[in-house]
Design a protein that fits this description.
Elements (H helix, E strand, L loop, with lengths): L1 E5 L4 H12 L3 E6 L14 E4 L5 H11 L3 E4 L6 H6 L1 H22 L3 E8 L22 H18 L3 E8 L1 E3 L16 H9 L6 E4 L5 E6 H14 L8 E4 L2 E4 H12 L5 E4 L7 E2 L4 H7 L8 H13 L2
Length: about 325
């Protein structure tokens, strides 16, 4: 298949593009940057420019690429920042996706469509592990924009315009190809921050409370395999199911301990007062295993940290 990948130069997008190319798909990477400013791709692909907020450029990119499928990963992704710029998050994430869906409906009806959604759609679920049937009660503008995007995708699928899947990704980490892939540079996330401290690129890790809060982590290459399976085995016409993509529960304290062991370096910590946040937030990923045959292959915590460290060490 010819697969259009939006956000193809981001952390997860790079892993997805690589997986698709290794599986023999023809990848067309979309960027909003001028083509001369695009870094060398880490996988074979053709690059086209389009800004999801510009209908004309989206239609031109689709006319040029003529895709059989779309993996949609472009968008804004900072929870804290979304409180400062809620309108922008809605315009880019939900509005940009609506522009893409409208253009697909007009020019390439029947396209397969896989969307990178987020655990943020759940907010603070009452029950753990979280299943896909949990109420969608986001607590941030970022989460709200993801819910609105899923609803737009479901409406497009119900009309028969696309067959889709929404992958609700928990905390993607690690790096692809044993360190040859790009590192996650978002230091608001605990694993990248801990590794930056180990590499001498940051001074310390700030921890809320005692570090006992538990979150769900999944290797970015396992996320990419979920995209591939959803693309090839899901995306049935008229449907847009949601799937949790998570794998390994770990506390902040466990992550810091493993990071110190893997890197052989101290991880200085500053403890802040506890925050009002969920103590546990982990996924039930039974559905994606049962329906698409997905299972995490590289998501043991030590492998996640080791692969991410290999990528950081090469930068």
């Amino acid at each position: 298949m010819r697969v259009l990948v939006t956000g193809a130069f981001g952390f997860i997008g790079t892993a997805v593009g690589r997986r698709l190319a290794l599986a023999g798909h023809d990848v067309v990477a979309v960027t909003s940057r001028p083509l001369g400013a695009v870094p060398a791709p880490l996988f074979p692909c053709r690059v086209v420019r389009a800004d999801l907020r510009e209908e004309g450029s989206v239609r031109a990119a689709l006319a040029d690429a003529r895709p059989d499928a779309v993996c949609h990963l472009a968008g804004l992704g900072e929870v804290r920042e979304s409180f400062e710029h809620p309108e922008e998050y809605h315009a880019v994430n939900a509005g940009g996706t609506k522009t893409l869906l409208d253009a697909l409906t007009a020019t390439a009806a029947g396209t397969r469509f896989v969307f990178a959604s987020s655990v943020a759609v759940y907010g603070v679920p009452e029950r753990q592990p979280v299943t896909e049937d949990a109420p969608l009660l986001p607590t941030s503008p970022y989460g709200e924009s993801k819910v609105a995007t899923e609803q737009a995708i479901q409406a497009a699928a119900a009309s028969g315009a696309i067959g889709a899947a929404c992958l609700r990704i928990f905390n993607a980490a690690g790096a692809v190809a044993g360190g040859a892939g790009g590192a996650d540079t978002n230091l608001s996330r605990v694993i990248p921050k801990a590794l930056a401290v180990a590499a001498g690129q940051a001074g310390r890790v700030e921890v809320n409370g005692d570090g006992s809060a538990v979150r769900d982590f999944v290797h970015v290459d396992d996320v990419a395999s979920a995209f591939l399976l959803a693309l090839e085995n899901g995306c049935l016409p008229g449907r847009a199911p949601a799937y949790n993509v998570g794998a390994t529960a770990a506390s902040v304290a466990e992550i810091l301990a493993v990071t110190g062991e893997v890197t052989g370096r101290p991880i200085p910590v500053v403890r802040n007062p506890p925050r009002n946040e969920p103590r546990v937030l982990i996924s039930d990923h039974t559905r994606i295993g049962d329906e698409l045959g997905w299972s995490p292959a590289r998501s043991a915590l030590r492998e996640i940290v080791a692969d991410a460290w290999a990528a950081v060490s090469r930068t």
